[in-house]
């Protein structure tokens, strides 16, 4: 269902170079893993390093995944109608704030941001397709495939997810319980379809399909 986003790496590089050229010397904001990132109605954040978890809360208090913003991807209140909408640093992150006025005054910047929004759109469609799977097992497999594309880094034995996701993170993303996710991850490990490294990061081996 998910396709490789190799072209996304090129888009990220081009946008990063553009931002560095336009805003040399501009201070980035740093947020540490687990910390919320403040959102303002007239401001868009651009991720320069790390991964940001985008989510909402249901009336029951349950959290739902809306997306993952990785380097060069934008997020912020002007880009959503969801309320509440929250952003949390999933890893240590550096982000750059841009006002809507700044973006409107730079056609080149607006064009590059539009290209990056295409990647967010593809990610959102993948999350919607995942939510449509009836079986929890299938939803988890689709989520791991999405994470492999969005935050995966090649290592010797497979693709390592660059951010450390708790079982509760995964459970919230696919609408199930932490206990269920723990059980299913255990099954995938027994089948050799998933590894856990010394730092508790998930690795998806090259020679297996989820």
Give structural attributes:
single chain; 210 residues; alpha+beta; Jelly Rolls; Arc Repressor Mutant, subunit A; 2 domains; 4-stranded antiparallel beta sheet; 40% helix; 24% strand; globular; disordered N terminus
Describe this structure in words.
With 210 residues, the protein is an alpha+beta fold. The chain has two domains: 7-130, Sandwich (Jelly Rolls); 134-205, Orthogonal Bundle (Arc Repressor Mutant, subunit A), CATH 1.10.10. It contains six helices and twelve strands. The chain has helices at residues 6-22, 100-104, 107-131, 136-151, 167-174, 178-190, and strands at residues 29-31, 36-37, 43-49, 52-57, 63-69, 74-75, 86-89, 93-99, 152-154, 158-161, 195-196, 202-205. The strands form three sheets. It has a four-stranded antiparallel beta sheet with strand order 1-8-3-6. Strands 2-7-4-5 form a four-stranded antiparallel beta sheet. A hairpin with a 5-residue loop joins strand 4 (52-57) and strand 5 (63-69). It is globular. The model is unreliable at 1-10 (pLDDT under 50).
Count of all domains = 2
Number of strands: 12
Order of helices and strands: HEEEEEEEEHHHEEHHEE
CATH topology of the largest domain: Jelly Rolls
**Gyration radius from CA atoms, angstroms:** 17 Å
* CATH-assigned homologous superfamily of the largest domain: Jelly Rolls
CATH level-1 class of the largest domain = Mainly Beta
Which structural class best describes the helix and strand composition?
Answer: alpha+beta
Low-pLDDT residue intervals, each spanning 5 or more residues: 1-10
């Amino acid at each position: 269902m998910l396709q490789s986003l190799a072209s996304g790496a090129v888009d990220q590089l081009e946008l990063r170079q553009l931002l560095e050229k336009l805003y040399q010397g501009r201070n980035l904001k740093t947020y540490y893993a687990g910390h919320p990132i403040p959102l303002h109605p007239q401001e868009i954040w651009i991720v320069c390093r790390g991964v940001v978890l985008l989510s909402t809360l249901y009336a029951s208090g349950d959290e739902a995944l809306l997306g993952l913003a990785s380097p060069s991807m934008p997020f912020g209140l002007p880009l959503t109608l969801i309320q509440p909408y929250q952003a949390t640093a999933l890893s240590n992150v550096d982000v750059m704030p841009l006002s809507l006025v700044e973006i409107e005054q730079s056609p080149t910047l607006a064009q590059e941001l539009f290209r990056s929004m295409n990647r967010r759109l593809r990610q959102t469609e993948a999350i919607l397709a995942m939510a449509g799977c009836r079986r929890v097992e299938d939803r988890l497999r689709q989520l791991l495939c999405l994470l492999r594309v969005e935050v995966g880094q090649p290592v010797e034995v497979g693709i390592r997810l660059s951010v450390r996701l708790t079982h509760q993170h995964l459970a919230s993303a696919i609408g199930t319980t932490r206990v269920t996710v723990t059980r299913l991850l255990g099954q995938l490990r027994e089948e050799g379809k998933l590894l856990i490294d010394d730092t508790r990061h998930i690795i998806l081996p090259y020679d297996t399909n989820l």
